[in-house]
Specification:
It is a single chain. The protein has one domain: Arc Repressor Mutant, subunit A (Orthogonal Bundle), CATH 1.10.10.10. The mean pLDDT is about 95. The chain starts with a helix and ends with a helix. It is of the alpha+beta class. Helix 2 packs across helix 5 and helix 3 crosses helix 4. The radius of gyration is 15 Å and the shape is globular.
Length: about 100
């Protein structure tokens, strides 16, 4: 890997961490490690408005951290892959160790 390719990959990872920088978005991902959920379920569990939840989910989709499945008029959100679960779980475990 060249220096330029390395910088490009590191830049992509930095953008990923920016998306994870919101406590609400990180909480959404933590909830989704437990089970797939709809916008309304997530909004209720995290006590945020449905429009705000939709905005956060849009950011997470743009960064390919979550995906959704349409079921009628509802969309069920889940983690995009197992890597996301590891990132979230490891970050939370790390903070517990150092508290």
């Amino acid at each position: 890997m060249t220096g330029q390719e390395n910088i490009a990959e590191v830049s992509k990872a930095a953008e990923l961490f920016k998306a994870l920088g919101s406590p609400v978005r990180l909480a959404i991902l933590w909830q989704l490690t437990q089970r797939p959920s709809t916008v309304n379920e997530l909004a209720e569990r995290l006590q945020v408005s449905q429009p705000l939840m939709s905005q956060h989910l849009r950011v997470l989709r743009q960064h390919q951290l979550v995906s959704s499945t349409a079921r009628g008029q509802y969309h069920t959100y889940q983690l995009a892959d197992e890597h996301v679960s590891h990132i979230v779980r490891d970050a939370i475990e790390h903070t517990k160790e150092h508290s």
